[in-house]
Amino acid sequence: MADQKSKRGRPKKPMSNAVDMQVEPSPSVPADPDSPATSSPSSRRTRGRPRKIQRHDLQAEPHSGSLPLLVPGNDQCDAVEPPNPPTSEQVERVLPSMDAVVKVFCVHTEPNFSLPWQRKRQYSSSSSGFIIAGRRVLTNAHSVEHHTQVKLKKRGSDTKYLATVLAIGTDCDIAMLTVNDDEFWEGVSPVEFGPLPALQDAVTVVGYPIGGDTISVTSGVVSRMEILSYVHGSTELLGLQIDAAINSGNSGGPAFNDKGKCVGIAFQSLKNEDVENIGYVIPAPVITHFIHDYAKSGEYTGFPSLGIEWQKMENPDLRKSMGMAPDQKGIRVRRIEPTGPEFQFLKPSDIILSFDGINIANDGTVPFRHGERIAFSYLVSQKYTGENVVIKVLRKSEVLEFNIKLATRRRLIPAHIKGKPPSYYIIAGFVFSAVSVPYLRSEYGKDYEYDAPVKLLDKHLHALAQSPDEQLVVVSQVLVADINIGYEDIVNTQVLAFNGKPVKNLKGLATMVEKCNNEFLQFELEYQQIVVLQTKTAKAATMDILTTHCIPSAMSDDLKT
After folding, report:
1. Cα–Cα–Cα angle for 506, 511, 514, nearest 5°?
2. Intra-chain end-to-end CA distance of the chain, in Å
3. Can you spell out the DSSP letters for 301-341?
4. Measured by CB atoms within 10 angstroms of the end CB, which terminus of the chain is less buried, N or C?
């Protein structure tokens, strides 16, 4: 019921400091950060909600020739340009590479997570991209998410070419495209990548932002370099902060250094009344990792993680109690993900001293460049899935070394479903779904971190999957019928067991219900609720309920196999 769906997990904050710059014809584009991986003051994985950073979303195409809707804090008047325009020398160096910058047109059709048997109304967007070697084009993952058609247009051309999406890296917010038409590649030199820039190095951002149809150039400098939250992927990777203006539609456009080499991809910006011109760029090391990962296996496997939650060891009494020598530094392991390979080697309260031969400080940082330190997760992100690393730990005053194969992180509540349609199962009007971040956003809006039930939020932020195929299964809603009278108010309540057997995932639940020959179907829910239905009557009523609501099948295709 509506009153249950609005149950608040915690007090709602006033207007957030992140304002979406996207102009969209449909509310279906995710506009709020979905970064569940946060950490308490002593942890890098369960950090309390960080400052919200708004993903620089797609610029939606205006309809019927009308002007884009101006959103407060979002319109062209509020987009403050940098005080100094690009110099003629900068433009001359970047000019040869500008022909490789393309405009990306995409038609999206998003899944409807609240009604998983159907999709939302399609909408169009435009963003930027650029040509690289090997007849490939790079853009942002959120620019082509849930795509049904992608077209590219070169600078100065009146032709749009159909593109094929080769790979989407959700965690790093990068997508790779190609075009089969040979004409598209004629007369264009691919963009070359440059080294990681230093602080105060000049950068020039090129793209097709809101405010016009032709190419746009803005300039600035690199003002910060650190591990930052990638809003679209709910991950933390190396990122550049620049002061060049990044507006809606710049997503996927390259950032060039003063020698005309690409040093990053524009992808998100910070919108706040107290700040101006804070944009974020995906740096070249993250881009090359994505490209090499795809080249190695023909598909994108993702950035690996260490699969632990950890605590700083800055307190001298804490270090002494753990048996650390005065010259030893490291971090304490709090929890290990049961689904990760680290679970076989590491134990809680182990002190990780080094990662692949590089010592880790008590605050969890490692040397980066002259005068700079960075979170040690940067070292992990430089590796590829399946690579082995040597981790040195201190356990009960004994130094041990483990050779561990890295893997991608497995979340109980995933941040994305990677383009697949959502799973569902229906019996007697009860709609069962697996919880994901897009599902929470669909049910509770962009402020789901405040409006969703406390128990769901607790599992979202802190629960660890105990097996690779574990899911959080809930009764999403009840399609009212005579068979389910009295159960109409059950909404987004977790299913714990069926006929006394624990529910591990949605497919397991569907299999148990379909094969059940008992007189009754009994579902055990959280809060000590139970749902009991007569088996024969429930199965017979299901078909009529599906017909009434125009639902093609009682279960999604992935549950039928």
Report:
1. 125
2. 32
3. ----B--EEEE----HHHHHHTT--TT---EEEEEE-TTSG
4. C
Contact indicator for 263, 270 with CB cutoff of 8 Å = no
Residue 469 a catalytic site member: no
For residues 526 and 502, what is the distance between their CA atoms, to the nearest angstrom?
12
Enter the tokens of residue 121: 């109304």
- Amino acid code (one letter) for 324: M
- Among 414, 465, 472, smallest CA distance to 441 is for 414
CA 214 to CA 52: how far, in whole Å?
A: 31
Residue with tokens 């041990």: 400
Query: Could you give phi then psi for residue 250, rounded to 5 degrees?
Result: -70, -15
CB–CB of 322/351 below 8 Å? Answer: yes
- Pick the closest to residue 472 from 495, 454, 491 (CA basis): 495
Question: Which two structure tokens, joined as six digits, stand for 342?
Answer: 């680290």
**pTM across the whole model:** 0.82
For residues 491 and 480, the answer to whether their CB atoms sit within 8 Å is no
Q: Which residues contact 417 (CB under 8 A, 6 or more apart)?
A: 111, 436, 438
pLDDT along the chain (561 residues), means of 10: 43 39 38 38 40 41 35 36 54 73 96 95 95 96 95 94 96 96 94 94 93 89 92 90 87 93 92 79 96 92 94 96 95 96 95 96 94 94 94 96 94 88 96 96 93 93 94 97 95 96 96 95 96 96 96 95 81
- For residue 280, the cross-strand partners are 241, 268
Which residues are 150's β-sheet partners?
Answer: 106
Is 549 a residue of the active site? no
Measuring CA to CA, how many Å separate 546 from each of 426, 431, 539?
9, 11, 11
Burial (CB count within 10 angstroms: exposed 0-12, middle 13-18, buried 19+), residue 267: buried
The answer to whether 334 and 351 have CB atoms below 8 angstroms apart is: no
Tell which phi-psi region holds residue 321, choosing left (phi > 0), alpha (psi between -120 and 50) or beta: alpha
Report d(CA 4, CA 478) in Å as an integer. 13
Beta strands in 358-491 (DSSP E): 358-359, 365-367, 373-375, 388-395, 398-405, 424-427, 430-434, 473-478
Do you know the residue count of the chain? 561
Q: Which one of 251, 377, 476, 556 is the catalytic residue? A: 251
Kindly name the residue from 34, 97, 108, 142 that is annotated as catalytic: 142
Residues 6+ apart with CB under 8 A from 101: 128, 129, 130, 155, 206, 207, 208, 215, 253, 254
Q: Note if 251 is an active site residue.
A: yes
Beta bridge partners of 533: 521
Nearest to 108 by CA among 85, 140, 138, 134: 140
CA dist 138 and 256 (Å) reads: 14
Report the C-alpha gap between 493 and 5 in whole angstroms.
Answer: 10
Catalytic residue, chosen from 32, 34, 171, 173, is 173
Around Cβ 462, how many Cβ atoms within 10 Å? Answer: 16
